[in-house]
Amino acid sequence: MFGVSDLLSLVISAFIILPAVVFLRETGYLIVSGIFGVKNPRLTIGTGPRIIKFGIVDIRKYYHLYSWFSYDALKWKNNFAYICIYAGPIFMNLALALTLNALLANGTIQESVKFWDRFVFYALYYVLFDIVPMKTFNGRPNNGLIIYELLRYGKRIDYNQEPFIPSTTDVEKQYEEEMERIEEIREQEKENTSVQENEKIEQQKEQEKEELKEQEEQEKKEVIEQRQKGN
């Protein structure tokens, strides 16, 4: 039966373990690409508006699973370099999983064993997801399929035009455009709110005028009635 302890485990897995595994996976790209002279690398954590950017790390407002690596160019461009870069996340998570598993097996890690067991599980899950050649959403190849195509054909043959690893310059440009679009929407909402408030004020003024006019007419009627009674 799914109980409170299971719910707690689910929350920990979703908000701590999975994001950490994904981030470490992306660092695999960074480490290996650095060997081949990567230019303008960046690790982006989360989505939405930027909270802070320091060095190559870009932290966004909405923290969860979505972290990614981007770069502009490599100093040494060849199939071997690209194969190594695409294999980077696989080796990173595999090394992490094997190291943690060895520490658990020999008793070095004795506290929070379930936590680290789940960490190993999700690290190996991503290894499996990356290493088995397959196409993912929108027909995009995974790391394993790209490595297979580069080894067998010497190039990508999946016909997907989207770059597997985005350009940092393009990512920054898209971010600035998105922030400008959001700012325009906010300004438009402010203008609409201001117009609505002005219309509401005008309606209130008109209503007050009508009420004042009705009150004056009522007073005139009362005066006329009093005069008629006096006569």
TrEMBL record:
Protein name: Uncharacterized protein
Spans through the membrane: 7-24, 80-103, 115-134
This protein's record includes keyword Transmembrane helix: yes
Top-rank taxon: Bacteria
Disordered, as annotated region: 186-231
Keywords: Membrane, Transmembrane, Transmembrane helix
Bias (Basic and acidic residues): 186-212, 218-231
